[in-house]
């Protein structure tokens, strides 16, 4: 069962395995075989440099500068309800009280440390060469990649929050000026004793989103 993993061991996924997963995911369908996705793997010193800059930016209150809008604002009521319930449930699971501002900030800051992952995929596409369907194609590719990770008992966490500082991202990824970054995907071997990794989100019952017409 797939779920978000937010704590990883220090073990590195070998390059040949990472490449094999990416190649398998690249068989994902796309409109007219356009294959609009771009993928960058950051690890080693390059990732540590980015992690340091991101963490400093968050701690210093650097303004967020997302380059595309992920969802409606405000959210539709049903979606907002699920989002609020998730936030409350996860903080409660971690033992973080509503009024504990320091712990809540530390919790939020983990996003900008990529949850300590030693490897992070960054999914992107070319600026000015996309429409709504292009996002869909990239999403299908993303799910194929997540499936490959899951099949190898690796964990990951999809992050839109990591798109908050595109200037820092381009600083640490050479020749990325013409890319629109969509999300980050920290991945690796899950820590089995992590309280964060023992949390599982609720899902809507089948009848709320599925029907058969015949």
Q: What characteristics describe this protein?
A:
214 residues, alpha+beta, NADH Oxidase, 4-stranded antiparallel sheet, 6 helices, globular
Briefly say what this structure is.
The protein is α+β, with helices and mostly antiparallel strands and about 210 residues long.
Q: State the separation between the terminal residues, measured CA to CA.
A: 30 Å
Which blocks of ≥5 consecutive residues have pLDDT under 50?
none
Shape: globular
Secondary-structure arrangement, i.e. CATH architecture of the domain at 39-130 and 153-208 = 3-Layer(aba) Sandwich
Number of strands: 4
CATH topology of the domain at 39-130 and 153-208: NADH Oxidase
Name the CATH superfamily classification of the domain at 39-130 and 153-208: NADH Oxidase
Counted by DSSP, the helix tally is 6
Strand order of the largest sheet: 1-2-4-3
Determine the fraction of residues in helical runs and give it as a percent range: 25-40%
Structural class given helices, strands, pairing? alpha+beta
Q: Which strand-content bin applies to the residues?
A: 5-15%
H-E string: HEHHHEHEHE
Major sheet size, sense and barrel closure: 4 strands, antiparallel
Radius of gyration: 18 Å
Mean pLDDT: 97
CATH class of the domain at 39-130 and 153-208: Alpha Beta
């Amino acid at each position: 069962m797939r779920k978000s993993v937010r704590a990883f061991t220090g073990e590195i996924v070998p390059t040949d395995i990472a490449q094999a997963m990416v190649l398998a995911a690249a068989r994902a369908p796309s409109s007219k075989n356009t294959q609009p996705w771009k993928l960058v793997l950051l690890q080693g010193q390059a990732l540590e440099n980015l992690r340091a800059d991101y963490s400093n930016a968050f701690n210093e209150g650097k303004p967020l500068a997302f380059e595309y809008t992920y969802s409606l604002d405000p959210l539709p009521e049903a979606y907002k309800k699920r989002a609020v319930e998730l936030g409350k449930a996860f903080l409660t699971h971690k033992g973080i009280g509503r009024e504990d501002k320091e712990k809540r900030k530390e919790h939020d800051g983990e996003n900008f440390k990529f949850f300590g992952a030693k490897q992070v995929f960054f999914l992107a596409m070319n600026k000015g060469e996309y429409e709504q369907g292009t996002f869909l194609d990239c999403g299908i590719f993303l799910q194929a990649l997540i499936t490959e990770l899951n099949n190898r008992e690796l964990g990951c966490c999809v992050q839109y929050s990591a798109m908050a500082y595109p200037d820092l991202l381009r600083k640490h990824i050479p020749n990325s000026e013409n890319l629109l970054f969509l999300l980050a995907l920290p991945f690796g071997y899950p820590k089995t004793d992590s309280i964060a990794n023992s949390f599982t989100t609720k899902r809507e019952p089948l009848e709320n989103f599925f029907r058969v017409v015949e």
